[in-house]
Design a protein that fits this description.
122 residues, alpha+beta, Thrombin, subunit H, six-stranded antiparallel β-barrel
Length: 122
């Protein structure tokens, strides 16, 4: 049996400030919900986005965070960064993620880390 090393080479520099998560989140733009494909404390990528919001644009939208109890819903300002027509996705960054909203995301992030480590025995 041959093993393949899938670790990043040591010469690869990670440019992201925050670790990304693929734990499910939903954003609501106007009245339309969209799945967030991956996210961090700096921004997120909306999967299968067919809306009219295109870069460069700053707008307010809602984020729905599922939790063990009732879900959390908050509003925040985002800036559109990139639209990718090949996978029909929209990448955005948070303009002003206040401390209470960051706390909600952090709690959810930590819960998902614990859940996945228990579920997969990491």
């Amino acid at each position: 049996m041959q093993c393949i090393n899938i670790q990043k080479p040591s010469d690869v520099i990670e440019r992201r400030e925050y670790q990304r998560s693929s734990s499910p989140l939903t954003t609501v733009i106007g009245n339309t919900p969209y799945a967030i494909e991956n996210w961090s404390f700096s921004g997120f990528k909306i999967a299968s986005y067919y809306g009219i919001l295109q870069p460069p644009r700053i707008t307010k939208l809602k984020i729905l965070v599922p939790t063990a109890g009732p879900g959390a819903l908050f509003q925040t300002f985002i800036e559109t960064v990139r639209y990718e027509p090949t996978d029909v996705s929209l990448s955005v960054k948070f303009r002003c993620l206040d401390i209470s909203n960051k706390r909600i995301l952090n709690r959810y992030f930590q819960e998902q880390l614990v859940y996945t480590s228990i579920a997969y025995g990491d």
